[in-house]
């Protein structure tokens, strides 16, 4: 008679990855405690998952860098406008339009990394009272809904960009074409969707453990 | 199903999504999208999502938010919060309960440079908590005072919720900011008074500190210079109509950077961290606003707002305000304050207009009500921030006990704001634009 099987996960080295600081168990095939005798390949253990996380994080970080430059530029444009208008009587022409379009670049650029950084708030007091599998199941649910929302947002802002291009819509004073900014939002939804997909895989993995 | 029932169903779906742990911004966007697709059609709902994303990201009026968030982050990185507490402590630390008074004063001063209650709590708490431990202050009273005083960052201009309210209701953000000044000073005063009275009744809660000479006190005031310059620059410029709110935020951020550089507090690393923090926080708020916009469009097509206005017609004005206070007290304990504002303001604002209340007064009132939500568990930012600062040796119950003491002056402040609307409307009445 053998001993009761030790949960495999507990016998494996635990490290925390960059992805939401969740514990990841490395070791390839892991015994599924819910289904004795059956072995499953854990998603987060797979080499491709680690590489994908790294790639998505790198891409998101680059998008965020663009956002950071744009955010600094927003502040600079406003300060140049203040100094120009208040001290030299020469305001920056169309400063409000410049600020608004740079804001699109900044905020859309920061979307994916802010999600990766776990910034999006949620009601946690009921969620936290659930067992791990219950929490993981709700994470799967959240990720599917979030993915749907950002897939629609990405697709439709691209369509909006096309419409703005076809109609030649620009800002009122400077005539800055608006379509590149709508398309930028669409592009920024791509890494956001990948971050949510990784979230989804990670949650499925936790659910199956 | 008639649109009104769909609207109520959509709201219930939203609440279910909240409690299932879906991120709040996503939940509002999804509930609004599904509801709008049901009431109108799928194609219109898909176009609505795109246009709301683009309109919110491309809105100049919203650019005030990242600028003031940036200002707060830079003020935090420049170490201005710590100095504010040090000055307040030198001035008032000798009193029994002086550290509580100093915490409230420090939060009031630092809150004038940031719109974030959590940042205020951390900036002051990092200095105040070790000092309170050293002086053997009662943990409940000291941490409760920090959690509640930190919430002042939410009310004292530049206040992110007041800016959001101004944007949602098309009120002047400058006027909203100025309207928050006197109520914030009133609530700060009530916190100080509570600390003094509590420690007068129970001296062991807050022993008196070391005496300081007049020379030391006068010398310490130099430490307030940075905060004072920034406040006068930003709020003075807004009050005089010299700056637009976005300009004031950008100038404030630049001012904080200059002060940080001159005082050698701001390194390149801290600057980058501050910038990243501002962008990530801004992204979170913009997603909340996009979600609220989508949900708001759905609610508009269902006519729920009109239904609420009709319902409010059957209530007395005081009954309506009491009901709103109860909704905010309960809602604030269950939801974060920014989404609470984004959901409730578009619903409640028509009632306020119909009842003839001053919209500026209402904005200040609900911001004060949100302060309760910041400290009232289970969903309470400052409660968890303070727990993090206090460490594992202090139990959650201890902090709740302290918070309950300081909820008394906060509630009294809310009652005073309702009874004397002039506290909120006095300063904006001097603004001519």
Short description:
The complex is a heterodimer of chains A (about 210) and B (about 425). Chain A has helices spanning about 10, 45-85, 95-115, 130-165, 180-209; strands at about 15, 25, 30, 40. Chain A is mostly helical and about 210 residues long.
Explain what the structure shows.
The complex is a heterodimer of chains A (209) and B (433). Chain A is 64% helix and 6% strand. In chain A, the strands form two sheets. In chain A, strands 1-2 form a two-stranded antiparallel sheet. In chain A, helix 2 runs antiparallel to helix 3, helix 3 runs parallel beside helix 5 and helix 4 runs antiparallel to helix 5. Chain B contains 23 helices and no strands. Helices cover 78% and strands 0% of the residues of chain B. Chain B has 433 residues and is mainly α. At the A-B interface, helix 2, helix 3, helix 4 and helix 5 of A face helix 1, helix 2, helix 3, helix 4 and helix 15 of B.
**Strand arrangement in the largest pleated sheet of chain A:** 1-2
As residue ranges, the low-confidence spans of chain B are none
Number of helices of chain B: 23
Report the end-to-end length of chain A measured between terminal Cα atoms: 25 Å
Form type of chain A: elongated
Assembly type of the chains comes to: heterodimer
Walk me through the topology.
The complex is a heterodimer of chains A (209) and B (433).
Chain A: H1 8-11, E1 14-16, E2 23-25, E3 29-31, E4 39-41, H2 47-87, H3 95-116, H4 132-167, H5 179-208
Antiparallel strand pairs in A: 1-2, 3-4
Helix pairs in contact in A: 2-3, 2-5, 3-5, 4-5
Chain B: H1 3-19, H2 24-39, H3 42-57, H4 64-77, H5 80-92, H6 98-111, H7 117-134, H8 139-150, H9 152-155, H10 160-169, H11 173-179, H12 181-201, H13 214-220, H14 225-239, H15 245-262, H16 268-302, H17 304-312, H18 317-334, H19 337-355, H20 359-375, H21 381-390, H22 396-419, H23 422-425
Helix pairs in contact in B: 1-2, 1-16, 2-3, 2-16, 3-16, 4-15, 4-16, 5-6, 5-7, 6-7, 6-8, 6-12, 7-8, 7-21, 8-21, 8-22, 10-11, 10-19, 10-20, 12-22, 14-15, 16-19, 17-19, 18-19, 18-20, 19-20, 20-22
